[in-house]
Write a structure and sequence with these properties.
The chain is built from 17 helices and 27 strands. With 717 residues, the protein is of the alpha+beta class. This is Alginate lyase family protein. Pfam families: Alginate_lyase, Hepar_II_III_C.
């Protein structure tokens, strides 16, 4: 076996820098732990003979084995450079040779998908991911191989893949999408490994060479807004950021003239910051659009992004705290300084992400995502997320103006996420289920208002992609924070405005969420104000009837066909309902009158048990113009193990609508030692100097700016 010189250039770094990283990993600390994690994952496979399966659907043994093999090749190649143990290089080389001898003898995958098939996988995306990681591994061990073996690997495997992605599937290569990012990164990194500059040019500039219709530069220019937000949401953002970071680092090393880390006003820096800013306090990402409810900052793409951001955009206490929470670092030389900083920390550092509004669209003018964050006296962070941006392309859900609430380490007003059991072969091959369309994407599956039991934009993605929410105002500082937005093009002839306020009161242990959802129409409609929750209902102030013998369906389409009615009751003079979720109590107050509350549960029309059984509440009323005014209080503590319970009844008692017009909405909130009036401007174009007046019968309410709060010494804005 030949050995590499210490100045060997790889796609992402050099042999000398990797050797230094390996030396740093021989002591203690996060580098050593990260190398140990990689070694422990790879060691059980080192005695295996080369196993190259045939083809299988997503989630099958063959599918998962091919995925694992690419990561084995990459991981053993990297460990060879870090340790200089030839066993790792020999392993990677043998597996690459095995694939090179079989690849061109494999037919294209027979399974049809929206994505073209590869030879190894049912969709070309997986083949591109495979190429990226296998190419990295090959680069690390390339010079240890005899010339004829290199020729076999490159001509039998890498060049055919490069041709497949850029010629056979030429029409798909320039697609502006997370798939497109993986495509250009895979082609670019593989081309650097085999020394084929024309493919690097294609990956950077696109097929047309204009850097606008395709290629890496077009991808990062068009997929991310000026705020850095990714169009498909956090779940696919963390997926897309991985190839983005890998190829950016490759271009930084091999094409320094691009100055990639300053490209488009430092869009890479902004998108790293934006992704992290979407996370809940526990590190989970909100399940906006097609998304897993459990995806979090431990994802490999996020680990890579944190190290890269710290290295190229300046040291950050927040990034250090995130890396500490992750417990490992990206095994790349640019992570060394971050690792050294993490090793100096004695205790877990808090992660401080501020309240923030992230604009959407390439020019930042297609709505936004809002995140309000407010701590209580004990440091527990409440977070409210509201979606008033774009649809999210082919992974979008029909949930504009949808919200979530998170506190006490759990999501309270919840997202369902996608309809999918990833990599579970027995559940539709691990692919998206039919219920992803019939339930998970529907408006009723979100914390939204549904009009006439329909779906926003008739559940038509092409139509939804043409419209977006309209930001109204965002105030993210102080003890009273708020965000407001309009959505006037999602239900025909219906104007919608939602305002969420997060307010800290000395009488309450946690900030209270005030939710004002206003609908405007010249005609009466059936409105369903929908809330998704988890836990056990404790008490309510309304009488209801429980469907004890037979449960009926709530509808026949638009998601309602998947809901069983469990109970229902009339709401005549406001609503108060409390539920227990794990150790916390939550009380919902609604000002509604002449309404009906429906208790519902998922699972209807689901004979294969593809849906999770979850609970929701629908507050239903017939109206033209109306305002759903709600307050959500977090209170009390329950510990079943110690049989301890306190504060099961909240302090808030009632919320009332005093009036609402095109100019503003006024509500009153009362409770134990609490009596406050909240006034919110509904006027488009409102500024901090706007004078607002709402007249209701004999009362006139006047305030300046976006909103105002009286009585409880909470400063208005």
């Amino acid at each position: 076996m030949s050995t590499m010189s210490h100045d060997t250039l790889f796609p992402l770094t050099t042999a000398k820098r990797l050797n230094n990283l390996g030396q740093a990993g021989r002591g203690e600390g996060v580098i050593a732990r990260s190398i140990k994690l990689l070694s422990n994952r790879l060691e059980p496979h080192l005695q295996q003979t080369v196993q190259i399966p045939g083809q299988g659907e997503a989630g099958s043994y063959a599918h998962n084995r091919h995925k694992e093999n690419a990561r084995l090749i990459e991981g053993t190649g990297l460990l060879y450079q870090l340790t200089q143990n030839p066993v790792y290089a020999e392993f990677a080389g043998q597996w690459l040779l095995g694939y090179a001898k079989q690849y061109l003898h494999m037919d294209f995958h027979p399974q049809k998908n929206t994505n073209p098939p590869g030879r190894l996988f049912h969709q070309i995306l997986n083949e591109q991911i495979w190429l990226l990681f296998a190419s990295l591994g090959y680069g690390y061990i390339k010079e240890t191989l005899p010339g004829e073996q290199r020729e076999t690997i490159e001509q039998g495997l890498f060049y055919p893949m490069l041709h497949l992605f850029t010629e056979t599937y030429r029409h798909d290569f320039d697609r502006i999408h997370n798939h497109g990012l993986w495509a250009v990164a895979a082609v670019g990194i593989s081309a650097l490994t085999v020394g084929e500059e024309k493919y690097v040019d294609l990956a950077v500039d696109g097929q047309a060479g204009d850097r606008e219709s395709g290629g890496f530069l077009a991808q990062i220019s068009r997929l991310f807004s000026p705020s850095g937000y990714y169009v498909e949401g956090p779940y696919y953002h963390r997926f897309a950021i991985h190839p983005l970071c890998l190829f950016a680092e490759a271009l930084h090393l091999h094409r320094p003239e691009l100055d990639i880390y300053n490209y488009k006003d430092r869009v890479i820096h902004k998108t790293i910051q934006a992704l992290l800013a979407t996370a809940y306090p526990n590190g989970d990402f909100p399940a906006l659009n097609d998304a897993s409810r459990t995806m979090n900052i431990q994802d490999e793409g996020v680990v890579t992004a944190v190290a890269l951001g710290y290295s190229h955009y300046g040291h950050s206490d927040t990034l250090t705290a995130v890396a500490q929470r992750q417990g490992r670092i990206w095994l790349h030389p640019c992570a060394q300084t971050l690792a050294q900083q993490v090793d100096t920390l004695k205790e877990q550092q808090p992660i401080h992400w501020p309240s923030i509004e992230l604009n959407e669209g390439p020019d930042g003018n297609r709505g936004a995502q809002g995140y309000l964050r407010l701590q209580n006296a004990r440091g527990d962070l409440s977070q409210v997320t509201m979606n008033y941006g774009q649809h999210g392309m082919d992974h979008g859900h029909f949930d504009t103006l949808g919200i979530t609430l998170f506190n006490r380490d759990q999501e309270v007003l919840r997202e369902y996420g996608f309809g999918r059991w990833v990599n579970v072969e027995s559940k539709f091959g691990g692919r998206y289920l039919p219920q992803n369309h019939s339930w998970a994407r529907q408006t009723v599956a979100h914390n939204c208002v549904v009009v006439d039991q329909l779906c926003q934009n008739n559940a038509e993605a092409d139509r939804a992609d043409q419209v977006h929410g309209q930001p109204h105002f965002f105030i993210g500082q102080g003890n009273a924070q708020a965000m407001s937005a309009f959505a006037n093009h999602h239900f025909r002839d219906i104007g919608m405005q939602r305002t969420a306020l997060l307010i800290s009161l000395p009488e309450l242990d946690f900030p209270v969420l005030i939710d004002l959802y206003r609908l405007s129409s010249r005609q009466a409609h059936l409105y369903d104000y929908v809330l998704h929750y988890a836990g056990q209902i404790m008490q309510t102030n309304i009488d209801y009837s429980y469907d004890k013998e037979q449960r009926s369906l709530l509808g026949s389409n638009n998601g309602y066909q998947h809901l069983f009615q469990v109970a229902k009751g009339d709401v005549t003079n406001g609503l108060k309902l409390t539920w227990l979720q794990n150790k916390s109590f939550y009380t919902w107050l609604s000002a509604s009158t002449a309404a009906e509350l429906i208790f519902a549960q998922t699972g209807a029309n689901d004979p294969e048990f593809n849906l999770r059984t979850e609970n929701c509440l629908l507050l239903r009323k017939n109206a033209g113009d109306t305002l759903f005014a709600s307050a959500f209080e977090t209170h009390g503590h329950f510990d079943e193990a110690s049989e301890y319970c306190a504060g099961a009844t909240g302090a808030l008692e009632r919320i009332e609508v005093l009036g609402h017009t095109a100019q503003g909405s006024v509500v009153r909130l009362t409770g134990k030692d609490i009596h406050m009036t909240i006034m919110v401007s509904n006027a488009p174009g409102v500024t901090p100097k706007t004078q607002n007046i709402v007249e209701v019968e004999n009362d006139t309410y006047h305030w300046q700016g976006f909103f105002a709060i009286t009585d409880n010494n909470v400063a208005g804005v």
